[in-house]
Amino acid sequence: MKIEELIRSVDLVVESASQNAVRFIVPQALKAGCDVMILSVGALADEELRETLFGIAKENNCKLYFPSGAVVGIDGLNSASAAGISSVTLSTRKPPSGLMGAPYVEEHGIELEKLEKETVLFEGPASEAVKAFPANVNVAATISLAGIGFRRTRVKVIADPSLSRNVHEITVEGEFGKFSTRVENLPSPENPKTSYLAALSAVSTLKKILSPVQIGT
Ligand SMILES: NC(=O)C1=CN([C@@H]2O[C@H](COP(=O)(O)OP(=O)(O)OC[C@H]3O[C@@H](n4cnc5c(N)ncnc54)[C@H](OP(=O)(O)O)[C@@H]3O)[C@@H](O)[C@H]2O)C=CC1
Ligand SMILES: O=C([O-])CC(=O)C(=O)O
């Protein structure tokens, strides 16, 4: 069955494919009246696409869901953003093999397999991080959407050969005070590229959509 036919017969589309899939499928799905859950959140760093999607969702009275993905702390960030937030930082540490193929790594000729100790590969705003590492720091996009946007959210990407887990640390400061979170993610049993928690967050978001009881922000 073609995508165009499929979206006419469903209530909710779950995108878990790629940033290109977000560009291609999500506008069509929203126009067809579907709610949409997006995992390739990095696509939303493109301001034009972001405003288009938010606009179509509003016009068609559809919901766009962005699960917490591979990070913890989006609940606190959501609460904190009801008042002023002064800074949000994300530090992502991955085994070098988890960063292979990233455009930033290719463009800079970084020889990941030769790294012997932890190495900071990138430091900059989330707007650049998600383009440099589209399959690795979608979490930076989710944090940007929940908090202070893609330009003000600061991201560090570190390759660490001593790691077997994907480690994401978030620090947020604002009128509420300050919090820090750290998660050490095991890979998904069926897909070593992606943290298991990201898949679980999609399952949890589905349950939240269907449940009459909502817990947490
Ligand atoms: N929000 C978060 O915290 C996280 C988000 N992600 C993101 O979620 C997405 C899925 O992750 P993951 O499962 O690890 O990715 P994979 O690359 O392992 O799998 C993606 C699958 O989607 C297919 N696909 C990609 N683009 C299209 C398209 N345009 N139309 C149809 N099928 C398509 C691919 O097919 P083929 O191989 O044939 O191209 C592949 O089977 C990725 O964008 C990833 O970056 C991942 C982890 C955490
Ligand atoms: O799975 C992870 O740890 C995070 C990830 O790839 C992403 O955010 O794109």
UniProtKB/TrEMBL annotation:
* Active-site residues (renumbered): H168
The record ties this protein, via Gene3D superfamilies, to: Dihydrodipicolinate Reductase, domain 2, NAD(P)-binding Rossmann-like Domain
What is the reaction catalyzed? Answer: L-aspartate + NAD(+) + H2O = oxaloacetate + NH4(+) + NADH + H(+); L-aspartate + NADP(+) + H2O = oxaloacetate + NH4(+) + NADPH + H(+)
Listed under GO biological process in this entry are: NAD+ biosynthetic process
Q: Where is the Aspartate/homoserine dehydrogenase NAD-binding domain?
A: 2-67
Misc note: The iminoaspartate product is unstable in aqueous solution and can decompose to oxaloacetate and ammonia.
Name this polypeptide is given: L-aspartate dehydrogenase
Q: What organism does the UniProt record list as the source?
A: Methanosarcina siciliae T4/M
Gene behind this chain?
nadX
